[in-house]
Amino acid sequence: MKKLLVIEGPTGTGKTSLAVALAKKFDGEIVSADSRQVYKGFDVGTGKDLPPDAKYKTQNPKLGGYYETQGIRIWGYDLVEPHEEFSVAQYIKIVRVIIEDIFARGKLPILVGGTGLYIKGVIDGIPTLSIKPNPKLRKSLEEKTKEELFEILGRVDPVRAASLNSSDRKNPRRLIRAIEVGLTRSKLENSKFEGGLLFIGLTTSKEILNKRIDERVDKRVQKGIESEIKALIKNGVKRDSRAMDSLGYRQWKEYFKRPKKVSKTNVIKLWKVEEHKYSKRQMTWFKKDKRINWFDISLATWQKNVEKLVEKWYKGA
User: Fold this and answer.
1) N or C terminus of the chain with fewer C-beta within 10 Å?
2) What confidence score (pLDDT) does residue 218 get?
3) Domain housing 120
4) Where is this region: Interaction with substrate tRNA (predicted)?
5) pTM to 2 decimals?
6) Residue 12, annotated ligand binder?
7) What residues form DSSP beta bridges with 3?
8) 9 among the known binding-site residues?
9) 11 assigned binding-site residue
10) Is 14 assigned to a binding site?
């Protein structure tokens, strides 16, 4: 049976370090599930933490490429140029091919990251992503009132209609998309991962996590995030690009626009606050998944306990 190990949790919990250790122990390869690390050149601020001599290697254009650190391959970095649009659907398509390639070589794929939607897409599938907009349908609905649209949705997809909150019920754009999806959903194939799964979640107290996050931000400042952003801008990456709008980069926008009026201290402070908020949102997402086995990284034996669980699962039937 094919088996896929998943390591997830909020930023700053040491997911990649654990993944490298497990990859060494169980002959695995890592696949990043981080929406910021897909962009080329966005290294320091996204925490790729690659050794200076790491080289990007490509064997098959369909797989993208990989970096090697401590003898372990890491896939999922540098999938697109900073100016390119990149969707969850594209990520899922690429990563599923990568995972199959890892299986074909007899190794354990380890999907690791903090972007919950990426992980969900690979494991459970997100059928609505493959549903393309229907211009003809949208035009036929654009003159409808929100009440009429909700009534149509109730006939097309009563379960979806019942699940909408009051805000969504008053939003014509979302109602039309829900109708569009509802009319097409029955045609979609099941896109879930078929195989054995083990979910590992890393967590700790809010105080410890925030302290780790702050230390991590300070390290990224020391490693040259400011110089990295300058180089990206010099190489043509626009300040309003989607990549530059990601966490760890957008906090510097005003600093580069008005360096005499915006202090670097305030930029770093804001960055830390936003990282704290992000980690909270991540935990809200992950706590909904009851398949995750949680480990508190503040406990002395947490990593040994993880290794025992993985060994039992991987070597079992």
Assistant:
1) C
2) 97
3) 3-125+192-205+278-315
4) 34-37
5) 0.82
6) yes
7) 196
8) yes
9) yes
10) yes
